[in-house]
Amino acid sequence: MGLKVIKRESLWAAQREDLRIVMDLLSVKQHHARTLLIHYRWNVEKLITVYFEKGESRMFSEVGVTRDELVVVTPHESSSTVLCNICMDDVSANVVSRMDCGHCFCNTCWTEHIVVKINEGQSKRIRCMAHECNTVCDEATVRSLVGKRHLDLGEKFDRFLLESYIEDNKLVKWCPSTPHCGNAIRAKNDEFCEVECSCGLQFCFSCLSEAHSPCLCSMWQLWTQKCRDESETVNWITVNTMPCPKCHRAVEKNGGCNLIRCVCGQSFCWLCGGATGKNHNQWSIDDHSCGRYKEDMEKAEHAKRNLYRYVHYYSRYKAHKDSFKQESQLWEMIEDKYQICKQGT
Known about the structure:
Herpes Virus-1; zinc-finger
């Protein structure tokens, strides 16, 4: 499986490769290519397939791309005004902006609309303000409008567009290192595989967990959850205690006799859990006979076997994990000594 490590500073160059393919193939501008790729999660092959299946007009309409920009002649007179249908004010024609769809509103309304969308995290596809208009706003116009009054939001907008190449892309994922090394990994497909970043971290590309081959991701998630939760505590209680038939408290046996007495005063048999009288001898217990097979006894034995099985695998899992941790620490120590010796020479 082909892998490529993408450093943060080269992220734009990697994104531009896919943008260029779509721009050349469909003869569209860069912001239109980006809108299309974000919609199809940067899957160039899927985008091309949909293009030939649905046709240009239908696909562009669904995504929000308007190919033919409307050319509007702006009056040259400084006194000319335009009615903004958002704030319903007459504003000067030189303080309005028009998107590819042809809808024109004043820059103040556009700016407020863009600010809201960026703060809501919708900056990757900011739609036109016009009613039922699906067109995605031109990113250059958006950048120009918001950058004049909100420089920080302009930078945030550019960052969202850049990082969408990873956030919306199934074939590119951030390295899950802590602290983050800043690298991303690009693969040819998103199938189950293990990768190694240039920072040295090995991880599963599918679920971003530590490398767990040959265990499937679903099984690994169940295993890690099992190690985190309290399911084994419940198993221990099931194996080593018996619920009182009266108050249902978990009672642990601390002696050799099978007649147990709960703190609530109820006596019961340790073998079957049935309520009994208080008097007993070495052969029998008053008001009780547990010679019959009890399903609860089978459940307890099953839980006991599961507990032993879990402990068996967990001990080996922990031994391998501790060994890997010690190996990593040893490697770091050797690397530090090597650097010290290298500087000394």
